[in-house]
Each structure stands twice: as C-alpha cells, then as structure tokens.
Amino acid sequence: MCFELVFFFFSQYWTVLYVNLSDLVFPYLVYCFYIKIFYELIVSALFNFSETVVTCDGFVQSLSCEHGKIQINTANYGRTDKTTCSQGRPSQQLQNTNCFSPNALDFVSKSCNGLEICEVYATHMIFTDPCFGTYKYLAISYFCLPHRIREYLFHGTVIHIQSANYGRTDSSTCSNGRPPAQLSKTDCYTLNSQTVVASRCEGKSSCSILASNSVFSDPCVGTFKYLNISYSCGSKCKCYCIEKLYCIVF
C-alpha cells in the first residue's frame, strides 16, 4: 500500500542512486523521496478543497471533518477588510484593515490539527489584541487530510535547526527595562551557538535550552543578550526495503 501510494503521486520525483558494497560494484537501484516534497505536493493538491470559515468577535466557531482529520492552512484574528463582520458596527471600528494577531495560526493549529471536530472561541482573551478599538473576527482556512496520508506525513516529526545565535543583533529585542548601554552593541555573535543548539535539539521531538553565558560563551561582556533560534519540523526518515533491491525512504 505504501509503495502504491508513493508511486502514484511521486513517480516523477524518483532519484537513482548507486551503492558499492565491495570491490565489485553492484548497482542497487534506490528509490528515494523527501517528506518535504511529499508534504508540499499533498498540501498543494488539497488546498483546492480547503474551506474558509469566519467567526465574528465573541462567537464560537466549530470545525469538522467527516472523512479525515483537520489540518489548518491559515488563521488570523484581526481584520483585513471593512465589510466582514461589519453589520451594526460604527465606522471607526472597521477602518484598520491591516490587523493580524501573531499567535492565531499557532493557537488554532495546536487546538485543531489531527482532530475530527474542534471549537475555537474568537476573543482577545485567547488571541493577542493586535489592534485595540477595531472590531475583529477570526478567519480560518482548513482542509480534511485523509487518515492514511496524515500518518505518512506526520509520523516521527522531529526538530531541524536552521540557525542559532546567542548575542544581540538589534537594540529592540529583549530591551524592556534595560539601560541603553546594555543594548547599543548590535554585532554580538557567539560562534558556537548553532553547534550547541543542534547538539541538544537536532532530531528530537522537543528540547529546552537555557539562554545563559554558562551554556554559551560570552561574546560581548556588558551587553544584555538573547538566544535567537530558527528551526523547522520535519519527518524522521524511515527506510523500507523490498527484495533487498529497492529502498523507499520516507
């Protein structure tokens, strides 16, 4: 079933590799594809079947999938036009159309992904209030991911570190209550940052790191530092071999 599914969707992505096992060269045909390609193509195909629901501030929105599991595509608590949820509202509450809540997608995804039914309350008590005085609404785009495909995509999700730095590269981040003298140096980098973070987090499903001189060296004495990490979540590859000749990696 796995082989049939993979071949159906991704026959154009097969890559030929060769493995030498001794002095004699035995070409082993290895079929490989990366989970990122799998994910992007599946999501791209299912995006055409996504549903968008809008909930005015103060109301509850119910999401459901009759076949499959919920997968959130986009979510925003705020306002991006003057007409949505505008009935009975004064004009001054509708003017800001560049209103986005930074935690909306993360919260909705954690609340609903992988479920068949979920409810989300559109309120500033749950989401941060990105534009005080503006009447907001919650807009969610989602699709229903078939059970078996979701198992392939999200089995064994792990952390992949892209970059990390313990230091300071601007004067505004982590600046609250700090004197200007501790914020003026903005070219502060710790050379071992990515190595330290990767050693503790790479390939794991979760990890924690203390942002401290005791963990990282101190690249700029007297400057108040912060730890900035860029990472992604991907699937841990699994290999299944068929008749010792064909290897499908996913």
TrEMBL record:
CDD domains: Gal_Rha_Lectin_RBL_rpt2. It comes from the Eukaryota. Gene3D superfamilies: 2.60.120.740. The keyword Aminoacyl-tRNA synthetase does not apply. GO terms for molecular function: carbohydrate binding. Keywords: Hemagglutinin, Lectin, Repeat. The keyword Repeat applies. Residues 55-145, 156-234 form the SUEL-type lectin domain. This is SUEL-type lectin domain-containing protein. It comes from Cyprinus carpio.
